[in-house]
Amino acid sequence: MKTILSFVLAVFLFTSCQNSPNSTNKAGESTKKVSITAAGATFPMPYYNLVFKNYTKESDVLVTYGGIGSGGGIRSLKDKVVDFGATDAYLSDNKLAEMPASIVHIPTCLGAVVIAYNLPGIDGLKLSNELLEKIFMGEITNWNNTALKSNNPDVKFPNKELTFIHRSDGSGTTHIFSDYMSKISSKWADIVGTGKSLKWPVGMGAKGNPGVAGTISQTEGSIGYIGSEFAFAQKIQTAKVQNSSGAYIEPNIASISAAAQGEIPADTRIMLTNSSDPASYPISGFTWIILYKEQGYDGRSEAQALGTLTFLDWLISEKAQSDASKVNYAPLPPLTVEKAKTILRSVTYNGKTLLN
Amino acid sequence: MESINTLLDQDHSTRRLLKDKLVLAGIILFSLLTVSPIVLIISKLLVKGYRQISLDFIIKNTPDTYEAITAVANGEIIPGGIANGIVGTFLMVVLASALAIPIGVLTGIYLYENQGKRMSNLTRSVSDILQGVPSIVLGLISYLWIVKHVTMGYSALAGSISMSIMMLPMIVRSTEETLKMIPQTLKEAALALGVPYHKVILRVLIPTGFSGLLTGILLGISRILGETAPLLLTALGSSMINLDMTKPSSAIPLLIWEFYNDPNMVDLIWSSSLLLMAIVLILNIVSKQIIANRR
Amino acid sequence: MNSDKITKSVLFSVSILILMLAAGMVYSLVGGAIPAFKAFGLNFIISGEWDPSEGRENYGALPFIVGTLLTSFAALIISLPLSFSTSLFLGEYYKETKVARIIGLLVDLLAGIPSIVYGLWGFYVLRPFLIDLGFGGQGFGIFTASLILAIMIIPYATSLSNEIIRMVPNDLKEAAYSLGATRLEVISSVIIPNARSGIVAGYILAFGRALGETMAVTMLIGNTNIVPTGFFQTGNTMASVIANQFGEADGLKLSSLIAIALLLFVITGVVNALGKMIIKKFS
Fold first, then answer.
1. Which CATH code of 2.60.40.10, 1.10.390.10, 1.10.3720.10, 3.40.50.300 fits the domain covering B83-294?
2. pTM for the full predicted model
3. How far apart are CA A10 and CA A221, in angstroms?
4. Which residues in chain A are closer than 8 Å to C249, comparing Cβ atoms?
């Protein structure tokens, strides 16, 4: 009994001595090492884990990220328990009004939502906009449907039930997918709409990208939508879809980046689905980081604010962006980087800007 | 002749013995059936995860996706390990236990001593209800209380608090029920000798019921070792070892969640789970040894 | 005796902590749940609608209440014979033997498996197994979820009951044996009545665990937000929908989820109380 008590006591004394290292510089001021905490979307998590770790190695500033979901990221920023949040869907004007102070969006990379399916031996399926509408609204229930055949005349379709696998949890992936569907199908826009969570007309729900990807891999004849990094990593069959110019595009790093080549508003809040660029993959999107425009809130130190901004500046720089394609994410095109840099330089601490 | 047999069998002994043997057979069958899932699950974990286990796995921090992609592409095992998770889990479990064990045991003793009183019935019912609260709700509570107001940010402390709430009902109930099984005579003898009440608790009741108490504690610890949802809202995670309880920290179930969500690191799930099971195994063996030594 | 008084008041104050904890939790949850109850009223409890579409949000808790009760009760019923037999095996029949130690260890290990791993194992192993057995569909559903829950709660029921059964005083058992009772009769007429309180406590804990389990259920139940009409259909539970939607929820939806958490508190209390009453009637 006594040994256990003394053990527990020892653990506590040990950990309480490990508070953020305080050192004093020559002027006698205490300089606390800055560490950055962030939370939000799971979609960019593999990319963030990589670059955040690289930054920590380079600059000795610990960056911690928790993939708790875009909603969690927004909530954490609202509650001011993180330095910045991460979200796959930008905040609408209504949502912006609900935040305690004005926030800015910084895009960090691009990803895409792919239409994945499981039909052994049949690769590179072409799905026109009409076909997508019919499949996801439940009008096509078997793969040997004539509409599918006429769009893919060289393919021999099996007589197999078609099952739609969608997300059961709220997600930014669903948001991007439904936004695209609403743009190409007015029927979808009326009945289902756009959102992170939807009332699905047909199909089965699986939890998370891994759940949907896993279910599709295990179920012949299934079709659904998943984040691109999953499809690339697990080599799941993906369909070609039509972009706004009518061409059938395969999702890859180049076509995803192309989606951001068009006009982007200054605050970067835009959905990149069905982008106008002729080489773009139509179901692509930014993922953003959100933080307060005025960083001098709630006793936040200038050092902390500067550390956060310096980090974000590094995140959109060439160094971090070049790592994106290594892990199957698409880097920001130069015009977007310029806009992001401008936004960062507008962030203030007690009224004056920090970066220049 | 028949009448003698029926006389001898007046107590239905053949039938009763038959029933006895049948039930024993059934019990053995069901027990084996009960154990089969664990055997299946552990063998699956072993088959998929043993390659990843090495000393590195325990002392290095988590790899990033790129390291994983290159390793998988080259057919090697993914480098790195889960040291940040192991340390985080350890610290949070120790703190959670330090809170939950005294409170749980003392409450269990109170319930044992005050059977039938309204207050103890209420406490017992509330404790049973707490057992049914989903872990994510406990995480939310800890987020609202600790993350927002105490540590002003995600922290291992918040994680520990949610863990300790999860452990409480189990410890309370197992303490109370264990103590109820101790013959009254033991307690009365000690009291009759003039032993002060708190010594009766410490020197008579707890040692006698030690095995049962430890079972409840072990069950509680086993559960919190593997819960992810509350930690997502409290400890958040970390790529490095963190010893500061007021800052975010990693934990093994959190890392399992990260591996699950990253298509390139899925292989690490199995070895991490194996490690967790090894920890549970060690805890079990050590506690059985402690109990054996006391006898 | 002063020290006795102090001891008694220490015990009392510590027990109040649990009550204060629960009260605090309810208070925090009620605050978050009010918008939902304001918007939907008490109809929230019996409404089967769950429509998250923007502009026409309508939430109701019925599908999840039904799903929770179905899966938890089914899990309890499935695990009862298994865990009861095992606790008898460990606590009476093969008490203190090597076999018992190994089996006891294996059962305790079940408690240490992370719930996400249960979900994965259920997804990759149990599901195809059920499909092979001919249960149709994709293998998701209430039944699959109940099965995995049953496995998860076995250690809670078994370990506690095992300890309690072991502690039945030997002299009681020996008295029965000396009167010519068979093993079975000693168990049914001496051990079980004596250990009943502890055994029941074990099952209440196990049931509570089943009510609140999130990860494993959410990966196997199919996540359809409608009231299930058959045992092999897909559905959803209260804990699972909270875990699924919480990350992305805000506004009215978040409030509805918190309201569901509150309802779970109430339902757990009601079911526990009913169970205890029924058991009292049977004794």
1. 1.10.3720.10
2. 0.88
3. 58
4. 71, 170, 197
